[in-house]
Amino acid sequence: MPEGPAPAPVIQRLRVRYAKRGRLRFTSHRDISRAVERAVRRAGIPVAFSGGFTPHPKISYAGAAATGVASEAEYLEIGLTETRDPARVRADLDAALPPGLDILDVVPAGTGRAGDAAVRPAAFADRLEASEWRIRLDGVSRDAVAAAVAAFMAAGEIEVERLTKKGRRRFDVRAAVSSCELDRRAAEAADAPCAILRMVVRHSTPAVRPDDILTGLRQVADLAPPSPPLVTRLAQGPLDAATGGLADPLDPDRETGLPSGDDAGTAGGVRPRPGDPASADAVSA
Q1: Over the Cα atoms of the chain, what is R_g?
Q2: Which residues share a beta bridge with 138?
Q3: Partner of 43 for a Cys bridge, out of 2, 96, 231, 241, CB 3.0 to 4.6 A?
């Protein structure tokens, strides 16, 4: 057993939404986690550590986007040994991170519904049921993309093959796509001829990625963009079956207004800035 005092308990848990923009989209998840750990130290945030021979800061990530993909909706959770104002943590952490890793929102993790501290929420990752994606296809006519999308959505099943950690697998990509449409207004406003897709994709096992869907579009309609697509995740969260849209996964925490930890403190949250612009400089998955 390691000697020395036990690590300080977690007093407050904060959930953080951040963006991965510009050249930082090429950064691996491991390098991003290292950058966050360094920024936490520089900002003087009292992060809690695990016990054992190799203590690690209590920072966990949920639903991280792949290397090479930009995102406006990445999430992490950090455990603190002292209570901190979420708005101050947001400002200090954002200032300590490099441009392109931008903190958009910080809220204290709730303990359940307001007035019922005995009710514990499901794991935060369980709220991330789907993602909304924006895919820019340069050098492709809008009519060709519209026809490919129509064929894709009309199909009952579209199987693609991809190499995974468990080897090469075949899986159905059509079932994971809740919606897919051509964003005509955005395409018309583009500087050069292009087509822009907006789609909502359910999280599944194995994960269906935007490049898998592009493979499906090539199968059903021979759609083959001449240059790599530009991919940005705009949002991820609970999927509303009635509207097909995504809810903010941090809303349940705002409703409680209570932080959670080994001991509960008090802190206020801040809402995300309305109309946060989606990164337009993402790259292919």
Answers
A1: 21
A2: 194
A3: 96
| Cβ count near 249 (within 10 Å) | 23
DSSP code of 122? P
**Region 180-201: what's the mean pLDDT?**
83
Q: Where are the beta strands (DSSP E) in 85-191?
A: 101-108, 130-138, 159-164, 167-172, 177-182
| Residue pLDDT, tens place only, 265-283 | 333 333 444 344 444 444 4
Q: List the one residue out of 186, 177, 73, 178 whose CA is nearest residue 137.
A: 186
Give the model confidence (pLDDT) of 87-119 as tens digits.
999 999 999 999 999 999 999 998 644 444 333
- 55: its two tokens: 């203590």
ω into 206 cis (within 30 of 0) = yes
Which position has the token pair 């101050």? 88
State how far the Cα of 121 lies from the Cα of 252, in Å rounded to an integer: 9
Query: Would you list the DSSP string of 50-97?
Result: --SSS--B-EEEESPPPTT-EEEEEEEEEEESS---HHHHHHHHHHHS
The dihedrals phi and psi of 225, each to the nearest 5 degrees, come to: -60, 140
Q: What is the pTM of this model?
A: 0.84
Who wins on pLDDT, 47 or 261? 47
Which pLDDT value is given to residue 14? 97
Residue 173 neighbours by CB distance under 10 Å = 24
